[in-house]
Structures are given as structure tokens and as C-alpha cells.
Amino acid sequence: MVKNFRQSVLLVLVIISVSFHFSEQLQSSQVQTLLRIQHLLNSPAILSSWNDDTDFCNTEPSLSLTVVCYDESVTQLHIIGNKKIPPLPKNFSIDSFFTTLVRIPSLKVLTLVSLGLWGPLPGKISRLSSLEILNMSSNFLFGSIPQEISSLTNLQTLILDDNMFNGKLPDWLISLSVLSVLSLKKNSLNGTFPESLGSLNNLRILALSDNHFSGEVPDLSSLTNLQVLDLENNSLGPQFPRLGVKIVTLVLSKNKFSAGIPDKVSSYYQLQKLDISFNRFVAPFPPSILALPSITYLSIAGNRFTGMLFKNQSCNSELEFVDFSSNLLTGKLPNCFESNSKKTAVLYAGNCLSTGEKNQHPFSFCRNEALAVGILPHRRKPERESRLGLALSISGGIIGGVVLVSLAFVIFRRVHLKQTRGRTLPRLIAENASTGYNSKLLSDARYISQAMKLGALGIPAYRAFSLEELEQATDNFDTSTFLDEGSHGQMYRGHLKDGSVVAIRCMKMKRRHGTQSFMHHIELISKLRHWHLVSALGHCFECYLDDSSVSRLFLVFEYVRNGTLRSWLSERRGRRTLTWAQRISAAIGVAKGIQFLHTGIVPSIFSNNLKITDVVLDQNFVAKISSYNLPFVAESLGKVGLQISSGGSKELDNKRVRHDEKSDIYDFGLILLEIIVGRPFNSMNEVGSVRDQLQKIATADNAARKSIVDPAIHNAYSDESLKTMMEICSRCLLNNPEDRPSIEDVLWNLQFAAQVQEAWRGDSQSSDGSPVLHFQPPRRQINLQ
Ligand SMILES: *[C@@H]1O[C@H](CO)[C@@H](O)[C@H](O)[C@H]1NC(C)=O
Ligand SMILES: *[C@@H]1O[C@H](CO)[C@@H](O)[C@H](O)[C@H]1NC(C)=O
Ligand SMILES: *[C@@H]1O[C@H](CO)[C@@H](O)[C@H](O)[C@H]1NC(C)=O
Ligand SMILES: *[C@@H]1O[C@H](CO)[C@@H](O)[C@H](O)[C@H]1NC(C)=O
Ligand SMILES: *[C@@H]1O[C@H](CO)[C@@H](O)[C@H](O)[C@H]1NC(C)=O
């Protein structure tokens, strides 16, 4: 549209210049003015041909320099400088420049683009009272757009793109009754649009992209000539703009529009380009848009559009480009993209379409997200106060929110500690409350072994929770369900409808972010599920009603209730301790958790800074790591936690990965040491000397080993098993990371120790019934020892 328009301007310009080509002689005063302008512009290269002898009215017009005369006066002046020009020097005065310029009052068309002009646009521009077209793009003009422009009643086109104007969109624009093009892209204008915008009846092009406008777009439906509306990259919304049906290009991307696409859009028969990407739409996508008679370009990427696409969906045969990426669409890609004359280019990653490709989420993801945002029929959520309880999915990474997660785990731990110390928390968990999984099943070791092989966690699939659900689970976050408070939020205990108990971390968001910005992190969190990790079960967003940014993020975790590993070893305070078999089992659990973090997910998670207090036990004494190095925690703290192979030396990368891997092995060694010896070690020196001792006595006689092992386990262990544990423990604690064993090596040794212990126990005493030996190491592995 703009292009057509420019072409016609140029055409008019050429016709005028041709018809008067040989007849015009410019008034000498205007010649002087033009030469003065050349000087004031610091004699740019583009004007180098101008001098006292130049016949201004009869020079060849070019794309960058054109002077058009009529009746011995200049009516058009086009000077277009170099794109990357810096501001004119300090001695340039915009005021003097305009004082000179207004001496050509006959100017109808003025283009002063990329000339380095700087300063506030002077009000005296109003003296150019014949002005019809003004284009002063790509300069350094600042301040507000002067009100004096309102007296330029012939002005049809006002283009001030790519400057530094600030302030509001003026409401005196209404005086420009013939204005048909208003383009103020790439400035720093802010505030809301004046209602009067809807009365500029001649407006054809309205381009206000890349500013800081906010609030609702006023009703533009009476602008029946409006063909181009470009509002990209502002903070407008949430209501979809109301427009006349003749709109041709509609660009709303990167704003805060969230209310759905109105039905009226299906009557936009001239609509060619619709770009509503990267907004906050939470609504069904009407596929009929694909079949609009003129549509050639459609992008809805980066929203939360739901709905099902069908193979038999028809689309406009001229459709060239469609971007569905990152929404919640299900179903199949329509065949019409393939079969139409233009062979539509389609982008659709990050949906739940059944395309058989990896770039799609599982169907359940989209369904749950959709349920959680409450946009399915009959699932609309009531509004609450000024907020809409949109339990949107996907979450994550804001620094605050994120540090939290690790705190959440810390708090788990503290809760457990408190419990085991017998301190009364507000209304402790009812003894018989059911857990997330069936504990009878857990006591069947064989079953567990099977389930573990199959990867069945015994916890429900990761999902988005709705806010109502969490409110119900916590009795509206009643104080009686309150567990603990960290610096970043509160922890509540919740009873879900299915009877399971969960821990819910509630985090208030300070900065305003849409749910989109959390998506990546939530995807990572949702992968951190393993038998030997305290797993995340899901999340929930609460959003502000006004701009749908996230007000609170809830993370829902497994509730692991049997205390930390340390509380069963060195802090047991008279309580019975773990048997040797249970200790080996716990060690194997921790090692498996580490193995999962290193090799079970992409990207791997290293440098977990594991402590024995971060290992919690469930009621069946299954060990779970509660405070692993959550990717975004590392990110936000600038730690190197994520080893995503990047550019650079592969060898170096490998080395670093190996090293980080081995720091987890050392931490594991410390945990193992406490498991064996039954007391904590506080100094590196002490650890070093005990390690050396272990190394020696691993090969000495059993009396020496007995002297160091936790006396609480009496003689209830196989010496061969203890020997293996001591040996692997001392290797884990070696100073040189390269010398420490791999996690696989560790696991083989532990499993060997477990099997030896089981054989010994079978021989010497009856089973204590604890489900310890789920781990039947394959013979092959044992033979490797
Ligand atoms: C500005 O200063 C430069 C030298 O620094 C000079 O060449 C130029 O003519 C001056 N421009 C004006 C408009 O005075
Ligand atoms: C303003 O003029 C420049 C130079 O001719 C041109 O590139 C730009 O497209 C014009 N702006 C509009 C909105 O027509
Ligand atoms: C608009 O920007 C100005 C500074 O240019 C600032 O003082 C003002 O508060 C902003 N107004 C809004 C509504 O953001
Ligand atoms: C959005 O506009 C601002 C200026 O208002 C600009 O600084 C920023 O680069 C733009 N962002 C994008 C993604 O275009
Ligand atoms: C497209 O197919 C779906 C089922 O696959 C059917 O329900 C629908 O009516 C069909 N639509 C058209 C226009 O044929």
C-alpha cells in the first residue's frame, strides 16, 4: 500500500517536472534559500552538485534528490541522505534550519530523510501552510510532535518514522481532516491512543509500530478507508481492535492482545496479511481465517490458541505463508497447504498436532494447558477481584520464581526435619492420608523393580493445574495448610481431589511477564521426574486481568514425608536407624538419581552440589534427591550448570563436562561416607584423613573395618559388602577429579555390595522385610568387578 502510494507520488512528481521542465526559472530568493539549506545540512554528499549556477528546477530528479518547481517556486523538495548518517554536528540548529526552510512557503511535498537532523521539531513548520506530504524519517528529532502541525490543514501524509519523538499520540490530529497516512513507527511515543483517532475518516494507513503505546485501541470501525493498521511491538490490548471491513494489512504482533479473534474478522474480504503473533491470545483459533478470500500471509505464532485442525480444511489458494508455531493446536495439518497453487510455507512447531514429528508436544500437554487456562466450553473461570485466575501453564524462569524452586526443596527438607524432631507444625498431616501412589505396591520389591524398568514413577503425569484446583486442595490457601515460608514465597500442603498429598510452592511475580516467557523453563522442569528425584508434578499460573501477565506462579511437587537421609543416620536422636541393606539401597537411589541427571535428560545437569540433607526418604525408604541443580537456577545465578554443547573446542567442552560430572561424584562420596560411618564430617581435612583410612582398611582385616563403621549397625552387615562400599567411597573422594570413578562404576559396585549383603542376610538371618533389594544387577556387571 505504502509502496503504491509512493509510486503515485513519484509519478505525479515526474509528470509535474516533465511538463515544466524547460519553462521554470526559480526565484533568486529561493535559490539562496536552497544553498543556505545545503550549508546548514553541513553540505552532505548528496547535495554536492548544488552551487550558485545550478538550475534547480531543471535538474534530473533522482531517487535521493529531487526539486520540483511551479510558477518560479519550489513545490517539492526531496533530499534523502545516507541511511547510517550520524547526527549533524553541535553547531547545527534545527531552529535556524526551519527558519530557512519556511522561506519556501510554496512547498507541498517535503522529504528530508536520513540527514542527521536533530532537535525538537520547531512549531514554525506550520508556516509551510501548503504542505501536503511530509516525510522526515530516520533523523534524530525528539520531544513531542508540535501542536502547530495541527494548523497544516492540507496535510495528507505525515511520516516521522525512526526518530526519537516521545510523549503521547496527540489528540489534535483530529484537526488534520484530510490526513490519509499517519506513520510514526520506531519512536518513543507512549500512553494511550486518543479516542479522536477513530474520527480521522480519511485515514488509509496508520503505522505506529515500535513505540511504547499501551491500553486499548479505540474503536476504528468508522475509519472505512483504513487499509493498513500496523501496531507491532507496543503494549496494546487486551481487546482486539474494532475495524472497518476494508482492512488489507493488519499487524498486531508483539503486544498484549488476549481477548479472542472477533467473528467480524471473517468478513474482512480484502485482508491479505494478518499478523497477530506473540500476543497473549488465549482463545480458540477460527480456521475459517485460512479461507478468507484475499489472505496470503497469516501468523498466529507465540500465543495460546487452541482448537483442532482438520485435513479437509479449505484455504485460500493464494496463501503463501502460515505460522502456527507455539500454540495449543491439535489435529492434523490441512491438506490445502500442499495442494494450493502457491504451496503455502507452513511453520507449526510447538503445538500438539499429530504430524508424527518431534517438534510437537504430546496431545495431553495441549489439552491440559487448554483446561488450565479455562478456555474450553463450560470451563470458563469466574473473575476474581481485579484478577482473572488464569491458571496458565508453562512457567518458570524469572529469577525470583526460580530461585524459589530450589528454596522449595530446601523447605521440604526443613519440614521433614521439623517433623522428625517431633515439633508440631500447624496441623500436621493426618497419619493415614493417602499418598500420591499406592504404598502397598511399593512394598512389593519385585513389582517396583519392574515398574522402574518400565520407567513408571508411580506419580501422575506432569500437568498444568488450574487455580481452582489448588485453592480447593489448600482450602483457599488456608493458614492450616501453610507449611513454611522462604524468602521467595510460601509452601502449602495440598490434598488433591484424588486423595494425593502435594506440596505447593506459591511465588509472587514482581516483574510482569507473560506466560510465554516461562514456557522454556517449565518444559525443563517437567522433564525432571525420576523415581529418585523429588519430582515436580505440575504448575499453575495466576494472571493479572488487565494485561494477563503472571501474578503468581505455583509449582506442585511430590510430598515426600519421611525425613532426610541424615535424620535417619547421624541425627536420629534415639530413633532406630537404617539397616545396612537400607543404607546400600539409599546409596543406590542417590546414585541412580545422579545418573539420571547426568544421562537421563537433555540437556544434562551437572554440578548439583548435593548434600546428604538434600536426600529425603519416602515412607518406604526410597531415597530421592530434592535439591538438584535446576537449570534456570543455574542460569539466573550465572553458574555453569547446564552443559549444552556449544561452539568452541569440543575437547575443552568434554573436559569440563567430565569435571562437572566428577564434582557430583565427590559429593556422592561424602554422602556415602556418612552412610558408612554414621556421623557428619565438617572439614575437608577430616574427610581426607578418613578417606585415606578407608583406603587402607578396605584391604585390611574385618576388625579394622568394624572400628570405623557406624556402631549402630552392630554386626548386621556382610563384611564383603562393607569392604566394597568403603573401597568405592574412598575412590569417590579422591582429590583429582579424573581419578574418581564414573557414576556407572559407582552403581555397579553398590549393586554388587547389595547383592552380597542380600546373600549374606539370606544365609545368616531372616529378612527384616524392608524393600531394599529392588536392584538385581545383571551378572555381567558383577563379573566386571
Ligand atoms: C559547523 O562547524 C563546521 C566545522 O566544525 C563547519 O565546517 C560548518 O560550516 C559549521 N556549520 C554551520 C552550519 O555553521
Ligand atoms: C519516507 O521517505 C523515505 C525515502 O524516500 C522512504 O524510504 C520511506 O518509505 C518514506 N516513508 C513512507 C512511510 O512512505
Ligand atoms: C511517557 O513517557 C514519559 C517520558 O518520555 C514519562 O514521563 C511518562 O510517565 C510516560 N507515560 C506513560 C503513561 O508511560
Ligand atoms: C520494540 O520497540 C522498541 C522501541 O519502542 C525497540 O527498542 C525494540 O527493539 C523493539 N523490539 C522488537 C522486537 O522489534
Ligand atoms: C472435515 O472432517 C471432519 C472430520 O474429520 C468433519 O467433522 C467435518 O465435517 C469435515 N468438514 C468438511 C467441511 O468437510
From TrEMBL:
Mind telling me which residue stretches traverse the membrane in this protein? 388-412
Q: Which InterPro entries match?
A: Kinase-like_dom_sf (IPR011009), Leu-rich_rpt (IPR001611), LRR_dom_sf (IPR032675), LRR_Rcpt-Like_S/T_Kinase (IPR051824), Prot_kinase_dom (IPR000719), Ser-Thr/Tyr_kinase_cat_dom (IPR001245)
Which GO CC terms are listed, alphabetically? Answer: membrane
Tell me the compartments it is located in: Membrane
What PROSITE patterns does the record tag this protein with? Answer: LRR, PROTEIN_KINASE_DOM
List the signal peptide residues.
Answer: 1-25
Q: Where is this region: Disordered?
A: 761-785
Outline the extent of the Protein kinase domain.
Answer: 477-752
Which UniProt keywords are listed? Answer: Glycoprotein, Kinase, Leucine-rich repeat, Membrane, Receptor, Repeat, Signal, Transferase, Transmembrane, Transmembrane helix
State the annotated membrane topology for this chain. Single-pass type I membrane protein
Question: Which Pfam families has this protein been placed in?
Answer: LRR_1, PK_Tyr_Ser-Thr
Top-level taxon of the source organism: Eukaryota
State the SUPFAM superfamilies in the record. L domain-like, Protein kinase-like (PK-like)
Q: Does the keyword Repeat apply?
A: yes
The question of whether Transmembrane helix is a record keyword is answered with yes
Question: Single GO molecular-function term?
Answer: ATP binding
What is the name of the protein in this document? Inactive leucine-rich repeat receptor-like protein kinase
What organism is the protein native to? Actinidia chinensis var. chinensis (Chinese soft-hair kiwi)
